[in-house]
Amino acid sequence: MKTPDAQDIVLQDFPAAHPSLRLAVVTETWPPEVNGVALTLSRLVQGLCERNHQVQLVRPRQASGDLGARDIGFEEKLMRGMPIPRYPQLKLGLPGRKALMASWSLQRPDLVHIATEGPLGWSALKAARQLRIPVTSDFRTNFHSYSQHYGLGWLRRPIAAYLRKFHNQTLCTMVPTRALCAELLSQGFERLQVVARGVDTRLFDPGLHDHTLRAHWGAGPGNLVLLVVGRLAPEKNLDLVLETFEAMQAEHDGVRLVFVGDGPMRDALERRCPQARFMGSQTQAELARSYASADLLLFPSLTETFGNVTLEALASGLPVLAYACAAAAEWVQSDHNGWTVPADDERAFVQAAVALAREPGRVARAAGQARASVEPLDWPQITLQVEALFLRAMELHRDGRRGLEAAQWGAKSSVAATPAGSLSSKLSRNVNQIDVKNIEAMKSTAG
To answer: I need a surface site. Which of 59, 287, 306, 355 has the fewest CB within 10 A?
Structure first.
């Protein structure tokens, strides 16, 4: 029998499977509720599961018969909740620290990530800290800005103080834009990291343009369809939409206005603008078709922490007219993929829209640039960045370094002080001082 020569031996190096993390994700909103927090968080959870992490989703029970979904790839822990005033279809999670401590004592998460700052989120924060589990958080909603639109402006400062106290007890708070990061740093928030929201570039696609839908809107090839997407509520600045529409009609009698969404202002808007089309709430597939079939997204809101509709529209080949804040400030370049005007300058917003009504060819040219500008923001890349931050937080927690200031994350030095560059370079700076290429090595250490 021949003895194998050294040259005949082939060694195959099979890398060890990386250890998965057990993550508890706490939120007070979740699909089928329709809002930016619920939809983007569900995509993040899906991405984490695809990355082989075990996820426990902690959320309020949405209805009396809500038993939790099955065969969804992750575990659900349902908690008590109550309807939110004026938004009865949404639930506010009630305190549940003891229940969470009991659950996490039996099956301990490697990390708790809190997406909302309500009573349930506060309970999760206290339970995790008592059990010495590392905690990270998201800053997803400008509650302190919303208060002024509901006659509660006097609550703005107390709400801001509560949010600061909440987030400063976590190892890291993820914020969606550089501008918001700088604003929160100036207000005393610590350990902030910029992570943009993702967009589903497979779902939102210019190829879904639908002539039949445009005909339903009363629009043909020569018309200019303005689309408004979001909750029909005071904080969305919808009075400016009507003013803009009327000014554009004076220049171009083929302008059409379409609203997608529902809310407390719908009846009043229908009375004031009977020629507009009101489509109500739509599924994600229906919304994608609406984006791809319109010509210009009007987005005059000043209360967004991000504004997911901006990315969804751009991915659909739909240019955006918005104020230079939130996502639009980071991802819209005037006369390239849309237009921005200075924040709260209503006259500039209307004037920009009127100029487009006079020269609709500019809208068509911007449509051709829109999708390419957000293609780097696919959800797998965003999930990778979030995973890197989780691992970094676990490393700091393990080393007993929870008290490190934001500079240790690179937030003060490279987020607040560095000016925004080109669209293509922004994504690479979202996770500061973390090399996502080393994630697998970090996982091995965490495990």
So the answer is: 355
